[in-house]
């Protein structure tokens, strides 16, 4: 190889190496993709995120839906003489209503005046006593309290449905251990 060719080959090699190095440059890292569809993680700011969460979690209807569901379970547990299960759902009902009041504080006055005091406590204590003679009347009072709050909160139509229409067969069983 003549020195001229050697120099030319060297130039080509250097250019090739430079081109290769340029190609090897890392592309800037892609932004971390939002999880899911990004309705919260991809929100432009915290205020938008809060607003979306509030809208999604809704108002008092959503906790009331859970309360209605658990109320049915209370009723069934009473029919079965399963006092601890009835007490379990009854406690969750209180927690759910309190959670709802955090969202809708205007409903607090009626909730406390009509339901969360004696009617709720009365059934809770009766369930703890495991005495069916106390439980039956306490449940009837509590049911009346649910319905009174619906009337007071201007949603009396809620009361006109099977959930509140079906009477609890009395007397209640003595206990589920008796079977
Ligand atoms: C603060 C008074 C209050 C108390 C106490 C209360 N409710 Fe309600 N309930 C409401 C209001 C108000 C609504 C309608 C909510 C809305 O429109 O946002 C409602 C709605 C409901 C609904 C319909 C929910 C739905 O959208 O599917 C059911 C079922 C229900 N209540 C059951 C009960 C039961 C059972 C109890 C007692 C264990 C109870 N509620 C106690 C105020 C109350």
Question: Would you give an account of this structure?
Answer:
There is one protein chain. The chain has a domain at 58-166: Up-down Bundle (Four Helix Bundle (Hemerythrin (Met), subunit A)), CATH 1.20.120. Helix content is 67%, strand content 0%. It has helices spanning 3-24, 46-57, 61-79, 83-103, 108-116, 118-129, 132-152, 162-165. Helix 4 runs antiparallel to helix 6 (118-129), helix 5 packs antiparallel against helix 7 and helix 6 runs antiparallel to helix 7 (132-152). The chain binds heme C. Heme C is lined by residues 59-61, 64-65, 67-68, 71, 93, 97, 107, 110-111, 114-115, 146, 149-150, 153, 155, 158, 163.
Write the layout of secondary structure elements.
Blueprint: H1 3-24, H2 46-57, H3 61-79, H4 83-103, H5 108-116, H6 118-129, H7 132-152, H8 162-165
Bound molecules: heme C.
